[in-house]
Amino acid sequence: MLALAGSGVVVGLLSWSSFSLQLSDLSGLALAYNEASIAQQLIFNIRLPRVLSTLMIGASLAVAGVLMQGVTRNPLASPAILGVNAGAACFMALSAIGVAVISELHPLLCALFGGALGGLMVIALGGYLNGNRINPVRLVLAGIAINALLAGLTRAALIIADEMAYSIIYWLAGSVAEAGWQQWMLLWPVCSVVLLLSFALAPQLNTLALGDEVAESLGIGLGKVRLLAIVAILVLTAACVAVAGPIAFVGLIVPHVCRAVVGRDHRILLPFAALGGAVLLMWADVLARAVGFPAETPVGVVTALIGTPFFIFLSAKGRT
Question: Do 88 and 247 contact (CB within 8 A), yes or no?
Fold first, then answer.
């Protein structure tokens, strides 16, 4: 896995560029940054923040997927159920048509606030307001309802937006093409802290997997654990969507593959899934650049093409 990650970083930094980039440029940059070198400027200012952001987004979405499946005890659950993707997309669409206050926000803040609002609505309807306890079934149903509502508002805004519709549709596909140092500085502090907090929840998630009655008998506060996990999912997903748009299926594919490799112990599964998510999204971005080079294909298209048959397979397997 580490070899895949390392090779993915090198390929991501050097491949599919209109300007010739060599391994010597990368090794030279590692020793000393030469401002006179166009190749090193391109790697440092454009490729490096994109690669770092891709790795962090992949890791965050994968961990969010493990947390979501652990909280709901549903193997088909993904972070998108919380309404974060739909909320961010809705706010971006509303900003494009000039809705008061929302249109004045920076695009990153707009997506972040929209994702947070969508997630909070799902959490509230999912049962947190009733007895301070989140019900997994109600959470999924609330997610379906809120996603449908926000998707309807987004479609309506796209119809009104007209000239801005194309840029919003491109953003909705999910892309790391615009990830620069500004986006990286927004992403890494938030995601790093929340990832560490997510790893600390591993023992409680292991106990939660035994069932509510067993967990309560062992002194685990179900409401508190589920709330902390859902807040972690919300923050991780909202930060990623704010930078790259809604990238689907990473939070569904990676947990299943990693669970088959390392088992169900969340103390091992969570960090392994973080590495697996980083590797998957890194290579998906490389493939996305290769597909229509020199044009840029959104990485969300590649993950959707990989994830859709995977989801169908899991659904069919679950019925049998």
Answer: no
Q: pLDDT by residue (tens digit) across 277-319? A: 999 999 999 999 998 888 888 999 999 998 888 888 877 775 5
- Angle subtended by helix axes 2-14 and 266-291, to nearest 10: 30
Q: String of b and e for 157-193 (b: at least 16 CB within 10 Å)?
A: bbeebeebbeebebbbbbbbebbeeebbebbeebbee
Q: What is the pLDDT of residues 54-63, one digit of tens each?
A: 999 999 999 9
Cβ count near 41 (within 10 Å): 16
Region for 50 from its dihedrals, namely left if φ exceeds 0, alpha if ψ lies in -120 to 50, beta otherwise: alpha
**71: which 2 tokens?**
């909280």
What are the Cα distances from residue 51, in Å, to 36, 191, 311?
A: 22, 15, 27
Identify the CA nearest to 175 among candidates 58, 91, 296. Answer: 296
Burial class (CB in 10 A: 0-12, 13-18, 19+), 313: exposed
pLDDT tens digits along 169-199: 887 888 998 899 999 998 999 999 999 999 9
Residue 154 pLDDT more than 80? yes
What is the rounded end-to-end Cα distance, in angstroms, of the chain?
31
Distance CA 270, CA 206 (A): 11
- Residue 320's pLDDT band, with cuts at 50, 70 and 90, is very low
Decide: helix, strand or coil at residue 93.
Answer: helix
Q: From the CB of residue 124, how many other CB atoms can be counted at a distance below 10 Å? A: 13
